[in-house]
Write a structure and sequence with these properties.
Elements: H1 4-20, E1 26-30, E2 33-40, H2 41-51, H3 58-70, E3 74-76, E4 89-92, H4 109-140, H5 148-158, H6 169-178, E5 180-184, E6 190-192, E7 200-206, E8 209-213, E9 217-222, E10 227-228, H7 230-235, E11 242-245, E12 250-256, H8 257-264, E13 271-276, E14 279-286, E15 299-304, H9 306-317, H10 336-341, H11 345-356, H12 359-370, H13 372-375, H14 381-402, H15 404-408, H16 410-430, H17 435-458, E16 462-464, H18 479-495, H19 500-516, E17 518-524, E18 530-536, H20 541-552, E19 559-564, E20 570-572, E21 589-594, H21 615-620, H22 623-640, H23 643-651, H24 661-682, H25 687-706, H26 710-720, H27 723-726, H28 729-733, H29 737-750, H30 753-764, H31 774-787, E22 791-792, E23 795-797, H32 798-814, H33 830-838, H34 846-856
Parallel strand pairs: 16-17, 17-21
Antiparallel strand pairs: 1-2, 2-4, 3-4, 5-12, 6-11, 7-10, 7-12, 8-9, 8-11, 13-14, 14-15, 15-23, 17-18, 19-20, 19-21, 22-23
Helix pairs in contact: 1-4, 2-3, 3-4, 5-6, 9-11, 9-12, 11-32, 12-14, 12-16, 14-17, 16-17, 17-19, 18-19, 19-22, 22-24, 22-25, 22-33, 23-31, 23-32, 24-25, 24-26, 25-26, 25-29, 31-32
The protein binds adenosine-3',5'-cyclic-monophosphate.
Adenosine-3',5'-cyclic-monophosphate is lined by residues 198, 211, 219-220, 228-232, 239-241, 274-276, 281.
Domain Ras-associating: 517-597
Domain N-terminal Ras-GEF: 297-449
Protein name: Rap guanine nucleotide exchange factor 4
Length: 861
C-alpha cells in the first residue's frame, strides 16, 4: 500500500483533475478490452505541467507521476510499464474497482477547497521525490532502451556510491549502461541462498540485509552503500552466505554475472574485507592478473580467523560437485615454475595450519562442516552433500600431504576414525552421490593402517645415543640393518616416478619408526658420575631432569638440566623443550647441576674428541667413493625429515611439543662434516700428508657439488675456511694452481653476501634430487618468523604462512625425484667406508682446534 504522503498526493491530484479536467479520466479501449477511468500518460504530464509554475518541465512532471506509480497510488492498466510521457493508460488506485460506463462523483465543495489548499505542499513533496523516482524508472529500463541522457543520469548517480569509489570513471560509464534496479517489498525475503550459484553482484541503495551462514546464523548486517555477492562471481565459487532482507522496501543496484565479468572482473577492488559481528574475519587481496594468469582464483587470503579461512578454503578451493574427486592439483607435478603461478592457498594451509589452528580446533571445524545437515534447517540436499564432499576432499589431501603427524596426533587420529564411520553411514543415506568420496576415504583408511603397522614393527627398537653422544641408529634398527632399511626407502622413491606427493610419503616412511622409538642417553653430574635413561622421543627437559635427579639421588630443588659444550659453555634447557638429547651440539653432553654451581661444571675428557686423525684410513679410500657414501647417507637423513620439523624448530623446541629429531640429526650432520674436515687436517702432523688431505677435501667438495649435495659441499668448504685451517700457510702453499683455482671458485659459491646470492642463483638452475644447503633454509624461515607477526589485529597473518610454506615447498621439491647416483665402479672397501662416514669423530672445540693448528705451523715471527 502507498505511504500516507503519497496517498494524500494522489487524492489531491485526482480531486483537482475531476474538478478542472474531468475529461482526462475516462473509459478507454486497450487491446480490445474496455478499461474504465484511465488517464493517458502524455495528457497527465501536460496537465501537471500546466497546474503550477513550480513544475518546470515535462520530464519533471512525468517523474512526479512516477513517484506516485512507484508506491502503487497510480498504476499502468496492465501493470507492465513505469510512468511515461506517452500514449499509455494509467489509473488511480482509488478507481481500481471502477466499472465501465460509470462516471466518478465530483468532489464536494469542501473537498475542493481542501485539495486546493494542500496542492502546494504535495507538489513540493513530489518534486523532491521525483529525481530518485525518475532514476529508478530509468534503471528499470532494459539497457538497449536507455538513451544517452538516461545513461548520463545514472552515471552521475554512480559517482556518489561508496561501493564503486575505487573504480575508474570509464568503468562507471560502462556500468551506467547495464546496471539494474531491483527492489523488494518485504522484510524476511531471501535474495539468494548460500551454496547456490552466484548470478549477480549487489549494491544496497536503501534498506539493509542480513548475512547468514549455515550453522552460524546471522554473522553480519549490511547497510545502504554496502555491496555484496562479489566473491562467488570473482572466484567462480558458490555463494558463501544467504542474504535476507532486514526491512521492508529495500532497493538494490544489481550487476549481472555476464556484465560483471566483462566490465568489472579485472578492475576489482584490491582488498575485500568480510566482517562477522562487526569484526573483520577475512581479508582478501586481488592477485594481479598478469602475474598469475594460470590461476583462476582472483583473490588470495591475506589474513583471517582460522575458522573463516577454513570455511573460505572449503568453499572456494575444494569442489563440492560430483565427480570432482581427484581432479585437484594434488596430481600435478609441482615444478618450480608452478609454484609461482598456481593457487597455493590449500597447500599453504595444509603446511602451516599447526601454527594457527591446532589439530583439535581444525578437526572440530571439519566435523561441523561435515555435519551441516544436523546444524542447519536447510533441507537442500545438494548443498549438504557438497559440504560433505568438500570435507572429505580436504581430509584426503591433508592426509596424503602431511601423513605421519596427522596419524600420530590423538585428536586427528580420532577424527579420522569418526569421519570414516560417518561417511560409511552417509553413503547409505546419500548413495551414489558420495561414491567417489567413499573411495577417497578408503585410501585414507589404508594409509592410516599402513602407518600403524609400520609403527608397531618399529616400536620395539630403540634409538641409542652412545656415550659419544651421536645417534648410532636413526631408523630404530641396528646400524648394519639400517642400511638395508634405508635402501628400501630409497627404492620407494624410485617407484614414485618423481611425483611430488610421493616424496612426503618417503619421508614419512622413514620418519614413522622414529616417532615410536625411544632414545637412550646419559645425564652427568658435576663429578662425572652419570645415570643412563631411556625415554620416548617426545620427552621434555623437565621430565628428564626429575628422573635424573631421582636416579642420581639429588634433591630436586634448584636443579637445572643443562647442555655442557666441549668448550665448557653451559646452556640451560627450557623446561618444555622436546627431546633435548638429539638437539645437543656435536660433543655436547647433558648435565644436571645446582643452579648456583653451574660455573664449576667441567667437560668430560671424551668431549675433547679424538687425539689422532684417521689419515691412514682416508688415504686408502677413493675420494669419489667417499663422496658417494656421504651423499647416500645425507640423502637418507634428509629424506627422513618431515617438513613440519622445520616449523617446530623455527617456532622453538618448546612451542609445539613435537619431535624434530630428524632435523636435529641432519643439522648436526652439517656440523659433523664441517668439523670433521677441520679436525682431520689439524690432527695430521706431517706437512706433506696435510697438503694431500687438503687436496682430498677440495676434491671431495667438488664431487659433492657434482652430486648436488650442496649441504655437504658447504660443510666441507666452510670447514676449510675455518681459521684453524686457513692460517696453515705452509699447507696451502703446497697446493697446485689448479686446486687453488677450484677452491677460489668454491669460496665464491659460498659467499654469503647479498643474502647468498651466488648460491641461490646456482641452486635455482638445478633439477631435483638436490640436497640443499639446509642451514640457509633454516635461516630463511627464522627470518620470516622473526620479521613477521603471526597475528595481526586478531587475524592470522596468512602472508607469513605462505612465506613459510614456500620454503617447505622448496624442501619438498628438492626431494621430488629419487637419488640416482652412479655406484662407484670398482667399490673397494664399501662397507668400511659406509661405516666410516656414519661415524665421523670430531673435535668441535674451536679453541682446541686453533691450538692444534698453531702447534702444526707456529706463527712465523
Ligand atoms: P558471495 O559469496 O558471492 O555471496 C554472499 C555474500 O555475502 C558474499 O559474497 C559477501 O559479499 C557477503 N558477505 C558479507 N559478510 C560476509 C561474511 N562474513 N562471510 C561471507 N560472506 C559475507
Amino acid at each position: 500500500a502507498p505511504s500516507e504522503r503519497v496517498s494524500e498526493a494522489a487524492w489531491v491530484l485526482r480531486s483537482l483533475l475531476l474538478v478542472r479536467a474531468p475529461h482526462l479520466l475516462k473509459d478507454r479501449r486497450h487491446h480490445g478490452l474496455q478499461q474504465p477511468r484511465c488517464g493517458v500518460g502524455a495528457e497527465l504530464t501536460e496537465w501537471l505541467l500546466s497546474l503550477s509554475s513550480t513544475v518546470h518541465s515535462r520530464s519533471q512532471a512525468a517523474s512526479m507521476w512516477q513517484a506516485l506509480l512507484e508506491e502503487g497510488a497510480i498504476y499502468h492498466v496492465t501493470g507492465e510499464q513505469p510512468f511515461r510521457d506517452k500514449y499509455l493508460f494509467y489509473r488511480f488506485l482509488t478507481d481500481a474497482s471502477a466499472v465501465p460506463g460509470v462516471t466518478p462523483s465530483a468532489p464536494s465543495q469542501c473537498e475542493r477547497r481542501d485539495a486546493d489548499e494542500r496542492l502546494t505542499p504535495i507538489l513540493a513533496f513530489l518534486q523532491q521525490r521525483a529525481p530518485d523516482a525518475m532514476l529508478r524508472m530509468i534503471l528499470r529500463r532494459p539497457s538497449h532502451e536507455r538513451t544517452i541522457e538516461d545513461q548520463e543520469l545514472i552515471y552521475e548517480e554512480l559517482l556518489h556510491l561508496k561501493a564503486l569509489s575505487h573504480l575508474s570513471n570509464s568503468v562507471k560509464r560502462e556500468l551506467a549502461s547495464i546496471i539494474k534496479f531491483e527492489s523488494h517489498a518485504n522484510e524476511g525475503t531471501t535474495l539468494f541462498q548460500q551454496g547456490t550459484e552466484g548470478k549477480s553482484w549487489y549494491i544496497i541503495l536503501k534498506g539493509s540485509v542480513n548475512v547468514a551462514i549455515h550453522g552460524k546464523g546471522v554473522v553480519n548486517t549490511l547497510h545502504e552503500g554496502d555491496d555484496f555477492g562479489k566473491l562467488a562471481l570473482v572466484n567462480d565459487a558458490p555463494r558463501a552466505a544467504t542474504i535476507i532482507l532486514r526491512e521492508d522496501n529495500c532497493h538494490f543496484l544489481r550487476v549481472d554475472k555476464g556484465d560483471f565479468n566483462r566490465i568489472m572482473r579485472d578492475v576489482e577492488a584490491n582488498t575485500v574485507r568480510l566482517k562477522e559481528h562487526g569484526q573483520d574475519v577475512l581479508v582478501l587481496e586481488k592477485i594481479s592478473s598478469n602475474a598469475h594468469s594460470h590461476s583462476h582464483y582472483k583473490y588470495t587470503v591475506m589474513s583471517g580467523t582460522p575458522q573463516k579461512m577454513l570455511e573460505h578454503l572449503l568453499e572456494t578451493r575444494l569442489d563440492g560437485r560430483r565427480g570432482s574427486a581427484g581432479a585437484e592439483m594434488a596430481n600435478l607435478p609441482l615444478r618450480r615454475c608452478d609454484i609461482a603461478t598456481t593457487d597455493l592457498f590449500l597447500d599453504d594451509f595444509l603446511f602451516t595450519h599447526i601454527v594457527f589452528m591446532p589439530y583439535p580446533h581444525l578437526t572440530q571445524e571439519l566435523l561441523r562442516h561435515y555435519r551441516m545437515d544436523s546444524q542447519s534447517n536447510s533441507q537442500d540436499q545438494e548443498f549438504v552433500v557438497a559440504c560433505k564432499r568438500r570435507v572429505i576432499h580436504f581430509v584426503h589431501r591433508w592426509v596424503m600431504t602431511i601423513k605421519s603427524p596427522v596419524f600420530n596426533n590423538t585428536a586427528s587420529n580420532q577424527f579420522l576414525q569418526t569421519l570414516q564411520e560417518e561417511v560409511a553411514k552417509d553413503v547409505e543415506v546419500y548413495g551414489v552421490a558420495l561414491r567417489d568420496e567413499a573411495t577417497l576415504m578408503l585410501s585414507v583408511a589404508e594409509a592410516l593402517e599402513r602407518y600403524e603397522r609400520d609403527c608397531s614393527t618399529a616400536g620395539i627398537s630403540k634409538w641409542k645415543l652412545p656415550t659419544s653422544g651421536r645417534p648410532i641408529s636413526l631408523f630404530g634398527v641396528p646400524a648394519t640393518e639400517d642400511s638395508v632399511h634405508t635402501h628400501r626407502a630409497m627404492r620407494a622413491i624410485d617407484d614414485s616416478k618423481g611425483q611430488p606427493g610421493m616424496c612426503s610419503e618417503v619421508s614419512s616412511q622413514s620418519h614413522n619408526p622414529l616417532m615410536c622409538s625411544s632414545v637412550i642417553f646419559r645425564v652427568y653430574c658435576a663429578d662425572h658420575t652419570y645415570c643412563t635413561l631411556r625415554f620416548s622421543l617426545q620427552t621434555t627437559s623437565d621430565i628428564i631432569k626429575r628422573s635424573a635427579a631421582d636416579k642420581l639421588g639429588l634433591r630436586q630443588e634448584n636443579m637445572l638440566l643443562v647442555e655442557l659444550k666441549s668448550s665448557g659453555e653451559v646452556l640451560p634447557l627450557r623446561e618444555k623443550e622436546v627431546c633435548p638429547p638429539t638437539g645437543l651440539s656435536l660433543n655436547g653432553r647433558l648435565f644436571i647441576s645446582n643452579k648456583d654451581h653451574l660455573d664449576a661444571l667441567m667437560p668430560l675428557p671424551e668431549q675433547e674428541g679424538p687425539t689422532e686423525g684417521t689419515i691412514n684410513q682416508l688415504e686408502m679410500y677413493s675420494t669419489r667413493e667417499l663422496a658417494y657414501h656421504i651423499t647416500m647417507r645425507d640423502w637418507d637423513l634428509f629424506g627422513a625429515i618431515h617438513e613440519y620439523e622445520f616449523l617446530y624448530q623455527v617456532f622453538g623446541r618448546d612451542h609445539f611439543g613435537e619431535v624434530m629429531c630428524n632435523l636435529d640429526v641432519f643439522l648436526r650432520r652439517f656440523n659433523e662434516i664441517q668439523y670433521w674436515v677441520v679436525s682431520e687436517i689439524c690432527l695430521t702432523n706431517t706437512l706433506s700428508k696435510r697438503a694431500q688431505l687438503l687436496r682430498k677435501f677440495i676434491k671431495l667438495a667438488a664431487y659433492c657439488r657434482e652430486q648436488q649435495n650442496l649441504n655437504a659441499f658447504f660443510a666441507i668448504v666452510i670447514g676449510l675456511s675455518n681459521v684453524a685451517i686457513s692460517r696453515l700457510t705452509q699447507t696451502w702453499e703446497r697446493l697446485s694452481s689448479r686446486f687453488r683455482k677450484m677452491y677460489t671458485e668454491f669460496e665464491i659459491l659460498i659467499d654469503p653476501s647479498k643474502n647468498h646470492r651466488s648460491y641461490r642463483m646456482y641452486v635455482a638452475k638445478l633439477q631435483p634430487p638436490i640436497l640443499p644447503f639446509t642451514p640457509l633454509l633454516m635461516k630463511d624461515m627464522t627470518f620470516t618468523h622473526e620479521g613477521n607477526r603471526t597475528s595481526l589485529d586478531g587475524l592470522i597473518n596468512f602472508e607469513k604462512m605462505h612465506m613459510l610454506a614456500q620454503t617447505l615447498r622448496t624442501i619438498r621439491y628438492c626431494r621430488s625425484r629419487p637419488l640416482g647416483l652412479e655406484v662407484p665402479q670398482v667399490p673397494k672397501n664399501e662397507t668400511e667406508i659406509r661405516e666410516y662416514v656414519r661415524n665421523l669423530q670430531v673435535v668441535d672445540n674451536q679453541r682446541r682446534l686453533l691450538a692444534l693448528s698453531q702447534r702444526l705451523e707456529p706463527k712465523r715471527p
